[in-house]
Structures are given as C-alpha cells and as structure tokens.
Automatic annotation (TrEMBL):
CDD domains recorded: ABCC_MRP_Like
Subcellular location: Cell membrane
UniProt-recorded Gene Ontology molecular function terms: ABC-type oligopeptide transporter activity; ATP binding; ATP hydrolysis activity
Protein name per the record: ATP-binding cassette subfamily B protein
PROSITE patterns listed in its UniProt record: ABC_TRANSPORTER_1, ABC_TRANSPORTER_2
C-alpha cells in the first residue's frame, strides 16, 4: 500500500487537473460495463419475448437497444478522455520526478556526495526507473488495473444477484492467486535494489565503452572489444541470476494459483450449464452471468497490470530517501558578498576521503591575503587538488574551517572562479562554453576573454558547436579545451568573482606556453586573489607566495627567492626540473 500511496502522491503533485480527469475517467469506464451487462441482458430478454409472442417485448427491446447505444458512446468518450489525460499526466510525472532528482543531486553545495559509492548507487537506482519508462508503464497499468478492479467489483455484485455461491467461490480462487501476485510485486520491486543497481551500472559502463568515441581508438588498438563484451555479459548475468532465482520461486506459486482458479471456473461454469439445461435460469440471465464472470476475471489481470506501480513506488521511495539524505548537506541561502578580492583562511583543517584512514590534510593552517597570488606545489598525492576543492567549497573539512571573506567557502556564492584538471567540455557553442553561468554577456567580452586565454584562433566562430557530431561542429585538442576553460574563468572574474583557482589548468600545454600563460594570467588578474597549482614549478615562480605540501602539512612557505635561498624541498624540486628542462632543450636543439 505504501507504493500506491507514494505513486498517488506523485501523480497529484505532478498535475492535479489531469489526475482528476483520469480519476473521473476510471470511475466511468469501470462502472459503465456493469450497466452494459444489464442492458445487453434486457436486449436478449426482449428478443426472446418477441420470439415467444410477447407484444410488449419489441418496445422494451428498442428501449434497451437505445440505452445500450447511449452507454456505449459514453464508454467510448470516457476512454478517449482518460487516454488523453493519461498521456499528458505521464509526461508531467516524468518531468516532476526528473526535477526532484535534479534538485536532490544539485542541492548540496559540495561534490562529496557524487564521489560516495553508496550515494551514487541510490542516484542510479532512482534514475533507472526513468530510463526504463517505469513511470509511463506504471501509470498505464494503474489506469487499466483500477478500471478492471472497479468493473470486477461491480460484476461480483451483479453476479451475486443471480447466484449467491458463484461470486464467493470465484473470490476464493482469486485470493489464492492474489497471494502469488503480491509476492511477484515484491520481487519486481527488489529489482531496483542498491546491489543490483550497482551491478547494472557497472555492466552499462562496459557496454558504453564499446561505443564511446573517446575510448574507440584504444578499444581497437588493444583489441578490447571482446574483453569488454565479456565483462558486460558476466557482470550483467551475475546481477540478474539472483533476480531470476527469486522470480523462479514465485512463478511456481503463480502456476499453482492459476491451476486453482481454473478449477474454480470449471465448477462455476459447470453449475451455470446445469442450471441452463434444467431451465432454472433464462437465456438473458445466462448472458449476464457470463459477462459478470469475465468482469470478475479482470481482478487477476488488474493485479498483473499494477506490477508497474510497485516498481514506480519503490523508485519514488528511493528518491525520497535520497532527497532526505542530501537535504542534510544542502547549501545554505547565499548571502550578498562585498565585491573585490577575497581573503582566504584555513583554520586547523583536517580532511579524509570517505572510507580512508589517511589524512590528506592534517590540522592545516593557511591564510591568503586579498588580491595576492599563492602557488601550491608538491609531489603527486600531496593533497594539492584536494586543497583547491576545499578552498572552492566543493569539499567540507572533517574538522576546522575554510573561510572566504570570513564565511564558510561556498561555490554557489558567485565569488569563486576555478579551472580544475577535469574541467567541463560541453557540447555547446563556443559562446555558451565561455559564458556558462553568465547569461547576457556581450560578445566583445567573450572575445576578449578568449584572447587573454590564448584561444582567439581556434578556427571556430562563437556560434560553432564544440563537437564534431553536430552540423558545422568542430573538435578541439586538449590544449584548446584548456584555453576555453580559462576564458570561462576570466569571464567569471570579470563578473565579480574575487577568488580564482587554477588547478593544473594547462597540463596539455608545453612548458613555455604554460609559463607565458601563467605570467599573463597573473598580470590580468592582478587584484584578484589567485590560487595556482602546477607540477611545473617554473610556471608558478612569479606568484606572490609559494607553499610546499608534504605529509598533509605545509612544510615550506615563502617567495620563490626565499625558498631557493632556504635550500629545502622546493629548491631541490625546482633545480631538478630546471636541469631536466635544460637537457630536453639541448637534445631538441
């Protein structure tokens, strides 16, 4: 019943007007068949009377036929009205569910939930229903099952007026089969369980790789097609075997219940045939009797039609659980911030990734003055990218505080612009890729930002889609995409962002191009608090300050000259990189 309640609540919230139209249509199409049964019985009774010479039978027959036609037309109209409203309601329901899911996923200010396997399993289970059109089939099944259930109940009342024992015996037969169908509903709902959803997500990943353009070259060069196909099949079969075992047990119950119901029908129809041959019931009564039995049989098909409601209800329950869980970490209302460069401070910050005991940052203290530039360096795995995500408000520390202008870091505040290693590559126009989050910006500002980012000569107009799959579209190289991402950050700075974070944004560029671009960026963004991360130390030497991360702590802090003079870890790393670069230049020459 909980599944039905959740499904009804979702339909009501999605579109109340269409829901009411569907409800009225179900009532009409469920009740009118019983009226048609009685009318058809009267028609047959009148025909029999005419044959036997009853003078009034013709008049009664014409009246019965007229009523039969009227109610048939009403039935057709009710069905058309229900189908039309149902089509619109299913679309509104899907839109409502997708909106709820998007709201839940986008609600938290951080991205930590998107890196949590348990949350991702819940998201996938909740969205799988949309991918498989579960809500469409659930609504269709609900309308059909509700209609035939109502017809079945009214048919039982009609049948009870003709023979008290027949409907009772049929109900007993239906009850046995109903138990099996309820169990089948539970098994069908379990198909959306977290474990199965996770396995399906893994199998879908293998299948998508077979057609993924980015992986197409390696799939062919390394001959991965057969391996990926095998992995898809094995993971998918492993997920489905448990489902098939449960379904097999329930199918045996369904078989036994069906055989029992067949036996009940044999008894009821046999009794009807005996009464008809004995002349204890009329031909008209026999016709109504047969129609009523058929109407009651709809109670079983109704249970089958409503299986989709169980699946939809389970998906809605998961969506509600997901929404409740993510609401606890949703972003607080954004307060207006003062324009200008941001002051950034980390106070005793400790951070672990979920499920890991190793502290990425351990009781870290750091302050960045407004309008200054800070470079964060260190070996791979030192926590540089983690620190930038904390500064951007995308992660929350386990303890301590990350403050931007004295308030907890919040990516929704419009004060942070960032380019991360894994920046977005959007299949949109060049203009849209640069102006995301800043609608209405002038094309001259877009072109200026592209020029400052070194992306003025991409061979694309502002209206060109950045994907070859679209008409007139084009693909960009990795370095070109990075320049587009940098232009996007510059637009955000122009629109008021006071903190700019650049986390390895130019990894696809050569050393000289990266140095030139970083120096240009530091000049262009002078007066904006800027955080730079790069594994190439020569690219960040002109930052106002440089900190070296190691062992979850800041172990060195100062200007380039100060750190080189100190002769510590930074100086060693810089000298080593410089010597390798010199050797590379000499070899190239």
């Amino acid at each position: 019943m909980r599944h039905y309640r959740l499904f009804m609540e979702a339909l009501w919230r999605a579109d109340r007007r269409r829901f009411m139209v569907v409800a009225v249509g179900v009532l009409a199409t469920g009740l009118l068949p019983a009226v048609l049964m009685v009318a058809s019985g009267r028609v047959i009774e009148a025909i029999t009377g005419v044959v036997t010479g009853d003078q009034d039978s013709a008049r009664r027959g014409l009246m019965a036929v007229a009523w039969f036609v009227v109610f048939s037309l009403l039935m057709a109209g009710a069905r058309w009205m229900t189908a039309t409203a149902q089509a619109g309601l299913s679309q509104r329901l899907l839109a409502w569910v997708e909106d709820r899911l998007a709201t839940a996923v986008l609600g938290p200010a951080t991205v930590a939930h998107l890196e949590d396997p348990a949350v991702m399993a819940e998201i996938d289970a909740a969205s799988e229903a949309s991918r498989e059109n579960v809500y469409y089939w659930a609504l269709r099944g609900f309308v059909q099952s509700s209609t035939v259930r109502l017809t079945g109940v009214v048919s039982a009342v009609v049948l009870l007026a003709l023979s008290w024992w027949a409907p009772l015996l049929l109900v007993a037969g239906y009850a046995g089969l109903l138990v099996a169908y309820v169990r089948w509903e539970q098994v069908s709902a379990d198909d959306l369980s977290e474990t199965i959803a996770t396995s399906r997500r893994r199998s879908e990943y293998y299948r998508e790789l077979l057609a993924e353009p980015a992986a197409a070259k390696e799939v062919r060069i390394f001959g991965l097609a057969g391996w990926l196909d095998f992995r898809f099949g094995s993971v998918w079969l492993a997920a489905m075997e448990a489902v098939w075992r449960r379904r097999g047990r329930v199918q045996r119950l369904l078989t036994l219940g069906t055989l029992g119901l067949v036996a009940v029908h044999v008894v009821v129809v046999g009794g009807l045939a005996h009464a008809a041959l004995a002349g204890t019931i009329s031909v008209a009564a026999v016709a109504v009797f047969v129609q009523a039995i058929a109407g009651m049989d709809g109670l079983i098909s109704a249970q089958y039609d409503s299986l989709g409601v169980a699946k939809a209800g389970t998906a809605l329950a998961r969506l509600r659980t997901l929404s409740t869980r993510l609401e606890q970490s949703s972003a607080a209302p954004v307060e207006d911030a003062d324009p200008g460069p941001c002051a950034v401070e980390l106070r005793d910050v400790t951070f672990h990734y979920p499920g890991s005991k190793r502290a990425i940052l351990d009781h870290l203290d750091l302050r960045v003055e407004p309008g200054s530039s800070l470079a964060i360096v260190g070996v791979n795995g030192a926590g540089k990218s983690t620190l930038t995500k904390l500064l951007a408000g995308l992660y929350r520390p386990d303890s301590g505080a990350v403050l931007v202008d004295g308030k907890p870091a919040d990516p929704a505040g419009g004060r942070v612009a960032a380019v991360f290693q894994s920046f977005g590559r959007y299949e949109l126009s060049l203009r849209d890729n640069v102006t995301l989050g800043a609608p209405g910006i002038d094309d001259r500002e877009v072109e200026k930002a592209l020029g400052l980012a070194g992306a003025a000569r991409l061979g694309a107009t502002l209206d060109t889609p950045l994907a070859a799959a679209y008409d007139g579209g084009t693909d960009l190289s990795g370095g070109q995409w990075q320049r587009v991402a940098l232009a996007r950050a510059l637009v955000a700075v122009e629109r008021g962002a006071g903190l700019l974070i650049l986390d390895e944004p130019t990894a696809s560029l050569d050393v000289r191009a990266e140095i030139e671009l970083f120096e240009q960026f530091l000049e262009v963004t002078r007066g904006v608090t800027t955080i730079l991360v790069s594994h190439r130390l020569s690219s960040v030497r002109h930052a106002d300050r440089i900190v070296l991360l190691d062992g979850a702590h800041v172990v060195e802090d100062g200007t380039h000259e100060e750190l080189m003079t100190a002769g510590g870890g930074y100086a060693t790393m810089f000298t080593l990189q410089a010597s390798r670069f010199a050797v590379g230049v000499a070899d190239a020459g």
